[in-house]
Amino acid sequence: MATMPKVLNSLRYDETRCIGCDLCSAVCPHGVFAPNGRVARVVRYEACMECGACQRNCPTGAIAVESGVGCAAAMIKAALTGSAEVSCGDDGCCGGDSCCS
Amino acid sequence: MADRTIHPATSEITRANRLDHLQARWGYKRGAHRVQPGLYALGHPTPQSPVFVTANYSLSFDALRSALAGQDGYLLVLDTKGINVWCAAGKGTFGTDELVHRIAVTGLEKVVAHRRLILPQLGATGVAAHEVKWRSGFRVEYGPVRAADLPEYLRTSQASPQMRRVRFNLWDRLTLVPVELVHLAWPTLVAALLLYLLLGAKASAAAVVAVLAGAALFPLLLPWLPTRDFSAKGWILGGLAALAFAAPELGREASGWLRAGHALAYLLAMPPVTAYLALNFTGSTTFTSPTAVRREIFTYIRPMAIAFGAGALLIMALAIARWIGG
């Protein structure tokens, strides 16, 4: 079994690398980031769902977050068997599970 | 392989489209709700008209084109294997590579004079705007989360904080129920039949109710169920359903231990089923993080298994007692 996560979420932000492009504020669907003059600021850390949009669009790599598929069925299987959390198949999704509806 | 065809598109949602949407919502022919990837002309676009990018899931494509009624523009449809923008972005098919590829094969740079693409905000998990810029020359602009907000976005050239946020209202949750029910239909029928043979009609109904509580009632009642964790919320809901089955048992005419046994069987076996379905529902929401789901799995899977296992053993014992006792 993998270890039990202790933190709220895996979002890490290095303000010193921010160039203030504000893309993180634009892409976040939960308003976690907000523009704040020269650099972005984390305003709703607890609302992060680890989708990874901010990390993917940060041109300087100032943001790190461990995003996954978010498919509970895949995660339960991984937790029970100790294997890696696998994503959905290429064709169709999640092998018939309820995510991605 | 170049495909320079520009397909015609309208904003009209036909009866056939509506039927397709209904089938998609019920999980009928999953994966068949696709449109051909490529470039589409909506209305009478000029080289100055905006380009909107979407997935080749028919619900995504139709939401976009119907929201743009009266607008001339180009629709660039990525090959996401018939999966919606959010889920396809999560697994990378609505992604930088496919976008750059689709720009190239459609010859978009020859069709429009500008270098600006409007993407749905929820596509951002799969697309790196800066990478698209240096690989294709096109500048990615993230529009609102919902296509319906596009007219206002185009008018004001900016997305309000409201447009940038996902929501999960009653209607959003309701649309998820049919597909959940379809997925669970067979296992539920098998369980119901088995319980009917073992213990009778009431036990059979309990199986159906436990599943309905988790797959239909849970999504609808989500914001009002107490506690933070989905599993705990589900356990409470399943517990209430189980109480409705267990309470009348105590008033029945039978030996004390048999009544208690039946009541306990409902209370043990039903809540974990509802709780498990509730835990699975985290995958359908727009706000649970993998870290939170992992924490729930570690906290609740063991109690679920123990309670359900004990309930199943008790059911077997009660069934044996029923056969012996006649």
Describe this structure as you would to a colleague.
The complex is a heterodimer of chains A (101) and B (326). Chain A has 101 residues and is α+β, with helices and mostly antiparallel strands. Chain A has a single domain (7-84), classed as Alpha-Beta Plaits, CATH 3.30.70.20. Chain A is built from 3 helices and 4 strands; from the N terminus they run E-H-E-E-H-E-H. Chain A has helices at residues 23-27, 53-57, 72-81, and strands at residues 12-13, 33-34, 41-42, 63-64. With 326 residues, chain B is of the alpha/beta class. Chain B folds into 2 domains: 6-166, Rossmann fold (3-Layer(aba) Sandwich); 172-325, no CATH class. Chain B is 59% helix and 9% strand. Chain B has helices at 15-25, 58-67, 85-91, 96-106, 108-111, 129-136, 150-156, 161-164, 170-174, 177-198, 201-221, 230-250, 256-281, 290-325; strands at 6-9, 38-42, 51-55, 73-78, 116-119, 139-142. A 6-stranded mixed β-sheet of chain B has the order 1-2-4-3-5-6, with helices on both faces. In chain B, helix 10 (177-198) runs antiparallel to helix 11. The longest helix of chain B is centred in the C-terminal third of the chain and has 36 residues, at 290-325. Chain B starts with 5 loop residues before the first strand and ends with a helix. At the A-B interface, helix 1, helix 2 and helix 3 of A face helix 3, helix 10, helix 13 and helix 14 of B.
